[in-house]
Every structure is written in structure tokens, then in C-alpha cells.
Amino acid sequence: MTGPVNDEPSKSGETLIDARGMRCPMPVLRLRKIALSEPAGRTLVLIADDPAARTDVPAFCADMGWLCQKRGEGRWRVVRPARSREDVPR
After folding, report:
1. For 25-50, what is the HEC assignment?
2. Domains of the chain by range and CATH?
3. pLDDT tens-digit profile of 70-87?
4. Which residues form the UPF0033 domain (predicted)?
5. Which of 16, 22, 43, 78 gets the highest tally of CB atoms within 10 A of its CB?
6. What pLDDT does 13 receive?
């Protein structure tokens, strides 16, 4: 079952990713898809209520070289820097 997803930019210039109701790894996969479609440096706010997201989201962001800040229960602020793991040619 998937929850509502609002990937629209908010008035504050952040993109909200509402992954409530999704089970891991779906919140992380959704975060990746949206982050890579946005310009580098864009702030994303991920909301996820799956308990596994507590460890999966920070671990994924660290692995990708993205900045991740916990902003409350089930909420993270994520920024993909201009040069992150996804930007390095393979």
C-alpha cells in the first residue's frame, strides 16, 4: 500500500516528498528518484512513517554523499550537493 505523495515545491522552495504509508525501501527509492530529477542543491523534505526509514534514510544519504538532517519523528531534510556519488562518472 502506498500513501499520498506530494512532490511539489512548497512556498519555502523545498520539495516535499510524502512517503507515509510506504514500506522500505520505497521511501528511499522515492527520495532518490525525486532528488535526481531536481537541480543539485535543492532542499528536499522527506516524510516517512516506516520504522525502517529511521536507519535506511540516513544510511542511504551518507552512502550517496548527500546531506541529511533529522527534522523530527519521521522527517528529514535532504540536500544533494553539486558533486555527490551520483555525479561521478563511472
Report:
1. CHHHHHHHHHHHHCCCCCEEEEECCC
2. 15-76 (3.30.110.40)
3. 999 999 999 999 876 655
4. 17-41
5. 78
6. 83
Would you state the pLDDT for residue 4?
A: 46
Q: What are residue 45's DSSP bridge partners?
A: 16, 77
Residue identified by cell 552512502 is 63
Q: Mind giving me the DSSP string for 42-89?
A: -EEEEE---TTHHHHHHHHHHHHT-EEEE-STTEEEEE--SSSGGGS-
* pTM, 2 dp: 0.81
Is the separation of the CB atoms in 63 and 18 below 8 Å? no
Q: In this structure, what are the phi and psi dihedrals at residue 61, rounded to the nearest 5 degrees?
A: -60, -40
CA-to-CA dists, residue 33 to 30, 36, 37, 73, angstroms: 5, 5, 6, 22
Q: Which three cell numbers stand for residue 24?
A: 522500505
Which is it for strands 67-70 and 15-18: parallel, antiparallel or unpaired?
unpaired
